[in-house]
């Protein structure tokens, strides 16, 4: 058995690109510091809109080869972040992108939205018991913004966290492992509002500017327990985002999705710690390290 790094971080995401947008600076920072960083992506993002006209033929309603193409984009993005351990849940293509909520794609047989949560979690338990992360990062129960695959990624990650620690559950998957800390991706509303105010003031001439609520996970400040200053890794984050060329156009410090609406690139990344929960009465300072308090 190979020796595990001292600090180990697992991130669970829905589609290629979510990791770079939400956690790119965090992933680059911990990878550079020698922590084990593992990314599990639940689908290949087969239903995504495609920005470059030259790649329009990959789309689900044409060649339907966007998934494998996005897997190559993800691999390139992980190179930029220095992350070597990235996997698809149950293997590439096992679960398919479910499309936006209330679209016919939700009902495809292998749509992730339809996956049995315990069944999908069983694949993630195998990863957790192998890499034994002290820290897990995923979305809130709304998936940050209501996308079915993001909601499902949340459910699967939370369920797998429980099952992985349960000694009687599938001993054949390895020794039980209790993840010490679980975080949900967040952006404090005042931070988001300030950044959008700067974007409007600068008016760089983009076709439009996204509304603040297009940013996943925007919440009132009191929900935010943790801020990771990834300023030193801003270039790695934007390079990783740029690698997802079918999905993202980057013009630092802004980026655009296929809707052509500009948004800020956040290089400090924010989290809400849910395990262990914060003392609601306590006056705990904002953490600056996901591993704070972890006995590594
Ligand atoms: Zn996504």
- Separation, N- and C-terminal Cα atoms: 19 Å
Question: Which spans of ≥5 residues are poorly predicted at pLDDT below 50?
Answer: none
What percent of residues are in strands? 15-25%
Helical content stands at: 25-40%
Radius of gyration from CA coordinates: 18 Å
Number of helices: 6
- Strand-and-helix sequence, N→C? EHEHEHEHEHEEEHEEEE
Largest sheet: 8 strands, mixed
The number of strands is 12
Shape: globular
Mean pLDDT: 96
Secondary-structure class: alpha/beta
Which kinds of small molecule does this entry bind, naming each only once? zinc ion
How does this structure look, described?
The chain is α/β, with parallel strands linked by helices. The protein has 6 helices and 12 strands. Strands 1, 2, 3, 4, 5, 7, 8 and 12 form an 8-stranded mixed β-sheet that branches. The protein is globular. The model has no long low-confidence stretch (mean pLDDT 96). Residues 276-296 are annotated as: Disordered. Belongs to the MshB deacetylase family. Zn(2+) binds at residues 15, 18, 150. Its cofactor is Zn(2+).
């Amino acid at each position: 058995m190979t020796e595990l790094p001292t600090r180990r971080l697992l991130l669970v995401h829905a589609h290629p690109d979510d990791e770079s947008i939400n956690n790119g600076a965090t992933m680059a920072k911990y990878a550079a510091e020698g922590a084990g960083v593992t990314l599990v992506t639940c689908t290949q993002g087969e239903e995504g809109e495609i920005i470059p006209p030259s790649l329009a033929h990959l789309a689900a309603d044409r060649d339907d080869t966007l998934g494998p193409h996005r897997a190559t984009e993800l691999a390139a993005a992980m190179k930029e972040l220095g992350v070597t351990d990235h996997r698809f849940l149950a293997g590439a293509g096992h679960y398919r992108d479910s499309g936006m909520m209330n679209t016919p794609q939700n009902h495809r047989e292998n749509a992730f939205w339809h996956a049995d949560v315990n069944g999908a979690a069983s694949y993630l338990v195998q990863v957790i018991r192998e890499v034994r992360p002290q820290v897990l990062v995923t979305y809130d129960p709304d998936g940050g913004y209501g996308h079915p695959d993001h909601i499902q990624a949340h459910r699967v990650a939370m369920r797998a966290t429980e099952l992985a620690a349960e000694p009687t559950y599938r001993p054949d998957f390895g020794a039980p492992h209790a993840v010490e800390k679980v975080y949900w991706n967040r952006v404090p509303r005042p931070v988001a509002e300030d950044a959008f105010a700067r974007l409007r003031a600068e008016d760089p001439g983009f076709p439009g500017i996204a509304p603040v609520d297009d940013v996943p996970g925007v919440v009132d400040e009191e929900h935010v327990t943790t801020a990771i200053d990834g300023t030193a890794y801003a270039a790695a984050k934007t390079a990783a985002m740029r690698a997802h060329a079918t999905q993202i156009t980057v013009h630092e410090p802004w980026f655009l999705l296929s809707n052509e609406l500009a948004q800020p690139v956040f290089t400090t990344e924010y989290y809400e710690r849910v395990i262990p929960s914060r003392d609601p009465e306590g006056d705990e300072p904002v953490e600056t390290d996901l591993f704070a308090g972890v006995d590594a």
